[in-house]
Structure formats: C-alpha cells, structure tokens
Write a structure and sequence with these properties.
The chain is α/β, with parallel strands linked by helices and 79 residues long. It contains 4 helices and 4 strands; from the N terminus they run βαβαβααβ. The protein has a 4-stranded parallel β-sheet with strand order 2-1-3-4, sandwiched between helices. α1 links the parallel β1 and β2. It is globular, with a radius of gyration of 11 Å. The protein starts with a strand and ends with a strand.
Length: 79
C-alpha cells in the first residue's frame, strides 16, 4: 500500500502508520509516479488524496478500468 499526497500532514501521518507515502506538489510528477506505481507488482493499493485525484483523474480511472490491481482509493484532504 502506498499513498500520494500534496499534503505533508497526510504523507507524514501515513508514514508513521507504516504506509509508504509520497509528498509531491508538481502535477506532472504526480502523474508520472501514478504510472510508475501502477506497473509495480508489489503495489496492491494506491491511496490518493482528493487533490491528487483531481489532478490525475484520467490516469486513475484508466488504471481502475483496465487493471485488476492496484486498487485506487481516494481519501479526504486534510483540513
């Protein structure tokens, strides 16, 4: 399980819980990381914040529609 977030709070919190987390602010880097992780056989779940989902909706929907794994989970942004 991994997480991609534009929020440092979420990334650090999930790291403390043992989840490999990526804090990425650049939209192109987010899309590239999603593509990279979607090809990694060791990744079964990709958690993304709402903000990341909005940036990469097309890529995430493509993964969900065409691959059994990884599962894409959208989590709320921190307030």
């Amino acid at each position: 399980m991994v997480c991609i977030s534009k929020s440092m709070d979420i990334a650090v919190g999930l790291r403390l819980a043992g989840v490999q987390s990526f804090f990425i602010r650049d939209d192109n880097e987010i899309k590239n990381k999603i593509k990279e992780l979607s090809k990694d056989e060791n990744v079964a779940i990709i958690n993304v914040t709402e903000e990341v989902y909005d940036v990469a909706t097309k890529e995430l929907q493509e993964i969900s529609n065409n691959q059994d794994l990884p599962l894409i989970v959208k989590i709320p942004n921190s307030k």
